[in-house]
Amino acid sequence: MADDQEEPPLAIRIDQTVEEPSQSDQEKPQNDYVSVGVTVITGYLGAGKSTLVNYILNAQHGKRIAVILNEFGEEIGVERAMINEGESGALVEEWVELANGCVCCTVKHSLVQALEQLVQMKKKLDHILLETTGLANPAPLASVLWLDDQLESSVKLDSIVTVVDAKNLRFQLNRHRDSSSFPEAFLQIAFADVVILNKVDLVSQEQSEGALEELENEIHSINSLANVIRSIRCEVDLSQILNRQAYDATHATHLEALLEESKSLSSGDLHDSGVCTLCINQTAAVNLHKARLWIEEILWDKKYGMDVYRCKGVLRVGNSDQLHTLQAVREIYEIVPTRQWRNEEKQMNRIVFIGHNLDENILIDTFRGCI
Question: Which residue, among 155, 162, 86, 163, has the nearest Cα to 127 in the 3D structure?
Fold first, then answer.
């Protein structure tokens, strides 16, 4: 039986309705509320998404984790996720509570409302997992969760986790490498913060350890910022996929470490002009207004013919002692001051781009116009 067709874990249906917040809860200061992190789980058909979800739902991890099975059809589209269907709308097909404290549900229409309902329904949640079953490209969903005003007080996007099949990944990538359009396998890796390289036991039975290293290099050539975890049947340490804070502007330490690892990337190292990662480094301080116009030309206007999927960086801004972080998913981006530069640090601009048809020379030359 295919991984994505596995039977769900045993569960008991919850018949209770959502309780309205008590008066004491309503009177609590808003800043005492802690947002619940949402991890989006995606992956190519058969890679093992459902295996990962079932592992989490059955494991004795001591965490209260809600798992949302997102059944948006292509005819509905993620835009409908932000529509408030009201009491008459079909929100959730089923809520179930598991013996280990986890909660599982199936969403049909309004994802945003379902998330808010879930947070209200459970007094204490450690995390929320959202498995995308009907959407191949996680970018629109990430955009909704990252910066949607309706969700700011309740939930926050923590990271995107992509499950890939170690045995079939190379075939899936090579089949479309020379194509002008890229399938789920490329896009899901490009948008990932964590890649679970699943079914490594099937590879090691037929090939050497070097084959797995080559696969990891292949993944990093597409997305150098992703953390790759090897697994068998998606049995992973949950601390490696939960609470990554990948979209938290104040969580700059991990971002800086990723950028340091990626600083030597150059388009000269790329095997082809497909989906890839490259990094630009400049030492001169930039004008913040010009930097915003520059990134908007690239992301919004696609002025230089580049299709940027993800972008992360740190900026040295003129007349400021603050390190600024840059993050972008497709057309949505933010540049925010994060902390003061440390005395021992070399102040510079370092930006990593993940996308299609990236041109290092154009990026460097146009970025100099921000100085």
Answer: 155
pLDDT for the residue 207: 64
Average pLDDT over residues 136-148: 71
Backbone angles phi, psi at 355, to 5 degrees: 180, -160
- Tell me the per-residue pLDDT of 85-99, one tens digit each, with 9 for 90 and over: 333 334 445 556 666
Q: Is the CA virtual torsion 18, 23, 25, 26 positive or negative? A: positive
Lowest mean pLDDT among 78-82, 121-125, 330-334: 78-82
Q: Could you give phi then psi for residue 354, rounded to 5 degrees?
A: -125, 120
Q: Which amino acid appears at position 15 of this protein?
A: D
- Cβ contact 84:110 at 8 Å: yes
Q: Residue 6 in 3-state DSSP? A: coil
What is the DSSP code (8-state) at residue 253? Answer: H
Q: How high is the pLDDT of residue 163?
A: 93
pLDDT band per the 50, 70, 90 thresholds, residue 10 = very low
Residue 325 pairs in a beta bridge with 314, 336
Closest CA to 212 of 226, 227, 222, 201: 201
Q: Which of 128, 137, 135, 105 is nearest to 14 (CA)?
A: 105
Distance of CA 7 to the CA centre of its chain: 26
- Within 10 Å of residue 213's Cβ, how many Cβ atoms? 10
CA angle 247, 323, 279 (to 5 degrees): 65
Phi/psi at 208 (5° precision): -85, 175
pLDDT tens per residue across span 17-50? 333 344 444 443 444 456 788 899 988 778 888 8
The pLDDT assigned to 153 comes to 58
C-alpha dihedral over 84, 90, 96, 101, to 10 degrees?
0
Nearest to 122 by CA among 97, 100, 144, 99: 97
Encoded tokens for 56: 């989490």
What is the DSSP code string of 126-155?
A: SEEEEEESS-S--HHHHHHHHH-GGGTTTE
Q: Side chain identity at 276, as an amino acid letter? A: C
CB 128 within 8 A of CB 156: no
Cα distance between residue 56 and residue 34, in whole Å: 23
Beta-ladder partners of 96: 13, 104
Residue 87 has which token pair? 């009491």
Q: Is the pLDDT of residue 130 over 80?
A: yes
